[in-house]
Task: structure prediction
Amino acid sequence: MARGSLTDLLADAFTTVLFGKKDTTRLPVRTSTNQAEAIYLPTAAPGLGDSGVIIGREVYSGKGYIYDPFQLYGQQLPAPHWLVLGESGNGKSSLEKTYVLRQLRFKDRQVVVLDAQGEDGVGEWNRIAEAVGVTPIRLDPHHRGGAGIRLNPLDPAITLTGQLALLRTIIEVALGHPLDERSGYALKAAHATVRADSLRAGVQPILHHVVEALREPKPAAAEEMNVGIDEVRDWGLDVALVLDRLVDGDLAGMFDGPTTAGIDLDSPLIVFDLSTIDRNSIAMPILMAIVGVWLEHTWIKPDRKKRIFLVEEAWHIINSPSVAQLFQRLLKFGRRLGLSFVAVVHHLSDVVDGAAAKEAAAILKMASTRTIYMQKSDEARATGRVLGLPRWAVEIIPTLSPGIAVWDVNGDVQVVKHIVTEIERPLVYTDRAMTESSDEEEAGADALDDLPPAFANAESESEPDRPQLPPGARANARALPPGTGKHSGRPEAEDPDLTAIAAAVFGPRASNPSHTRRGA
Result:
């Protein structure tokens, strides 16, 4: 034995010198699956924290997925803006709607939605607005005689610089090219004339006044350029023809008068219903530009509120150089004042290959959060190149089922299944005409009247007829009195519907996640 052992040692030493150290041979371990769970512990990437809105569940780890750009801004997010991509019918709309409904449970949130999708003769967000207790602002060019809602591009709340920039954008979108220097001067002179005349008369300037000033320029405008007055009139002719469409043409009825009084900018939810506008006409980008600039000067304020500006069919904004420049400024300005911009588009190729590729790239760069639903393989590869997605994420995008998306939050990439509660279901799902019978449609409409008492706020006994807000993300948030921006100071009792969504995400025994608001 001793001689054999010595021989083995000498052989091992010789082998080590020639071939290096011999690896230790591991004996196999025989165990059961129950024991293996303790030996090989599962691992998962850290989440985004537990403060914010419940989105759903991470597909691979099973963890609940919670997201809030305001909580993550400055730490994990360089910008609070969000891009949502994907083919129709894969869950973009239901994600947007449940996200807004759940955000509205925070007492310091306000949301504006540009609703460009029509359904059943009204905007797609009409049911959401009814549930919250607000009336959508319906912009309709077919209204005549002052019956419709109007937004004035020359509203005194908008700065002079903002008014002139907005007028240039309207004209450039309609013409399809930038204004030349002569036309730009004629517009500037007409705007200055209208401004001076309205101040003397004490009235609000309107587009009709600008059209008249372009048709009949003041002699001072010609003298300043040392040209004849007829030349100045010729310079402004195309500009006057474009603006005339908003005054007496096919786009009349929305911008040709003072801003309609009574628009509640303090409401927790403001929905601009654009569903009557042809989505493929020049009216849509013009409309979005006017609404965006008007909101920039009237809605966004330094009052520490967190605001969400959600735009359906956002390619109208990103694909037009002039409109994209306006919104690029809005995003930079709004970020400092707590604005999160949410852009919803079908295909990234709609925007990166258009005339405003440079402006689109700048806006996409500011969107630190990207959510990508199912796309075809070619589109997924193009999206991955533009957004810098990892290869594994690009490969699974064409295979995603409805309701499942790739989330890229400043490089933290996860596959997330969005969860919709039974109470939210009749409010958020679209395409009802294709998927429901008439009886089911009635049942869906009745759901607005059947919202359970758990959605009632602390003062709901005094307002029993108002529909209440659907479930949100946190148990200690205040319930929202419909149609107002004010909240009861008393904490609400345990919300069984919040418990239901928490149970759907975290398991039947889970309690609601605690979200401590900063400064609370």
Summary: Residues 315 and 350 are 6 Å apart (CA to CA). The chain has two domains: 56-126+276-450+470-506, 160-247.
